[in-house]
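Standup, Tuesday
Yesterday: got the pipeline producing structure tokens again.
Today: sanity-check two examples.
Blockers: none.

Example 1:
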Amino acid sequence: MTWSGYGSYLVIVVLIVLAPGPDTMVMLKNALSGGARGGLLATAGIFAGNAAQGTAAALGLGVVIARSQPVFLTLKWLGAAYLLYLGFQALRGAWRGNYDAVADTQRKRTSGFRRWREGFLSNITNPKVLVLYLSVLPQFLDPVRTTTWDALVLAYTVAVLGTIWLLVLLFFVHRVRAWLSRRKVRRALDGVTGTALVGFGAALALESS
């Protein structure tokens, strides 16, 4: 792999990472309800899921999963259902709008593992991430000269850059947290986040049919 080839790959990955998707919405959802810690834990879960899917693609397991119709469809339905569940949760919070009353209860009930799990599951059950790896990685791999380590480097580049972008967003959210904590603003953000998650889930479900 040449540096010029890797540079071209970086440009494509950056454009993909900057496009808002389910991972972004899940991180924002947890950052709004759990503060910087909640956003960090969700981001860590997203990174773990991204790295796992990238590893599978780099080692050739992703091709096996993508070609196994029952496994791939099951993964798609699970991903769609989970995104819909998270979306309806956010919409319910926006509808109720009683954030002061539930804030303490949420902090007690919502463990760090649960926030990490939300990030991990939102990514690992999204087959579009795996399809992304399988469609982009081969364009920069030479079957004759490329090693497994080269493939892993390309795969982990996506996970690392995606995590950096989420951390930048989290930093911004933390800086304007006082403004975001206003009831009207919070309801609007929960409504937008919930609608986006439901939209992503619905799109994934329609593609599954």
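Example 2:
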Amino acid sequence: MLNDFRFEQTDPARFYGAIAIDTAQMVADWHGARMDDAVVLDVGGGPGYFADAFELLGAHYISVEPDPAEMHAGGLDHRGGVRGSGQHLPFADDSMDVTFSSNVVEHTSAPWAMADEMVRVTRPGGTVIISYTLWWGPFGGHEMGLTHYAGGHRAARWYTRRHGHPPKNLYGTSLFPVTAAQGLAWADSAASRAELVGAFPRYLPRRLWWIMRVPGLREVLGTNLVLVLRKR
């Protein structure tokens, strides 16, 4: 999985194809119920690379994406694509069996408003999964590499000078510094609506999941935090 990160910009189909298979299996494992006929909402689904992986599990896949250019970037058939904002999901309360987002939180200026909306549209007993890249981890700068440790704006300037164009994920516009502490604090604030049943680093083996219990260390070594909640 980590090897495929090298191809996010140059070969997105390869990168997101690998992410899709891993995500669908992770969602199925944590949902704890058969995925046959489950209605799955992918918040920030982009071009829809995840559709086939979920449909292979028998799920009904729906993707919501605010950016029309991003929706059509992969040239895929949008069988269940809806244009809409993650902060104002165009779906009824308690309408989804599973609601998830993968590597979206760091690209929105109001991530926890989006998380609240994800809980709202999920049915009682359903599953909410939020997976996102940690700013202080080695992949926090995305295509800007480790230069983000010198500051997001400085990293963007260096990238632009080197490549002749700004990065796709522009700090302060489409890339924001989110932390594990923020996600865990949001989950605690949402406890009356959804129970936190898992919080772990997505790309590390289970024997290292204890990292997420150590403030500071989790921000650097955790790389990516997954929050799994069960709607009350």
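Quick observation on example 2: The first strand starts at residue 39 and ends at 43. The CA atoms of residues 74 and 94 lie 30 Å apart.
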